[in-house]
Amino acid sequence: MAEISASMVMKLRKMSGQGMMDCKRALQEADGDIDKAIEILRKKGLATLEKRSDRETSEGIVIGVEGDNWASLATLCCETDFVAKSGDFVAMAETVKDYMAACPSDEGAESILETSVDGRKFNDVLTETVSRTGEKIQVGDYARYKLDGPGLISIYIHFNGKVGAMVQIDTGDETTAAADVLKQTAADIAMHITATNPLALDKDGIDPETIQREKAIFAEQVQNKPPEIIEKIVRGKLNKFFAENCLVDQPFVKDDSKSVMQVVDETAKQAGGEAKIKRFVRFAVG
Q1: How far apart are alpha carbons 75 and 106 in whole angstroms?
Q2: Checking phi first, is residue 135 left (phi over 0); if not, alpha (psi -120 to 50) or beta?
Q3: What is the pLDDT of residues 226-244, one digit of tens each?
Q4: Could you tell me if 99 and 184 lie in one domain?
Q5: At 175, is the pLDDT very low, low, confident or very high (cuts 50, 70, 90)?
Q6: How far apart, in Å, are the Cα atoms of 7 and each of 21, 29, 34, 62?
Q7: Of 124-138, 147-161, 265-279, where does mean pLDDT reach its minimum?
Q8: Domain containing 35: what range?
Q9: What CATH number has the domain bearing residue 62?
Q10: Which terminus of the chain, N or C, has less C-beta within 10 A?
């Protein structure tokens, strides 16, 4: 068996980020071969992931990255708050931003895993971190928006890092999109989404089955009234349901005398143009 020197252990530790004893054991198993030792450490991480595949990853953070005409939002999740606050996890949260920026796909956490930066797939980076922490870590959610015309994308992440939102607003021209007043409104709406968790952008985005279920519940609540009264009451309750759950119809959190749509329309006029919310996404950890 090859003699494992302290310098070899230190070299492997620097390359892999693993603990001293883990590096020494891997080198012993690899008979001093650095490349084989790295593969052994990687297999250790894969084994940990497989062993803990059924574990809940209810801790972690929401991560946002913005470019010139695009933005991405994702969740990086782990099992415990202890690991979520560890140096390894914090470093990985910074690293994943580079992969989010490089990822060509618009959605799907698995697309991040297959993305390469400087010749390394994120899946390999994740495996190494899992090997060090001993916990299951995964990208839980991922979405990427890219503008295909004038507009802007805004991201808001709550101070606790566990919930965030991304919203895209399309405008009639670049001047309107560049207006500070509209940028502030976009940021406020992203915050609004984080706070209210709307089901859809508008009523057309709500699943018809959900609407039918709500109508049935409302009708059951007033079943002893005349049919024409039932219809009127159900329609009123359904409108209230839309106002509570459709983003454009919700009362704006910073001024509940106006709907979100009204705020966007008024702000766009101030900016000298027109604007419309195209889409949004909200991610939460836990």
Answers
A1: 15
A2: beta
A3: 777 777 887 888 888 888 9
A4: no
A5: very high
A6: 13, 17, 12, 39
A7: 124-138
A8: 6-51
A9: 3.30.479.20
A10: N
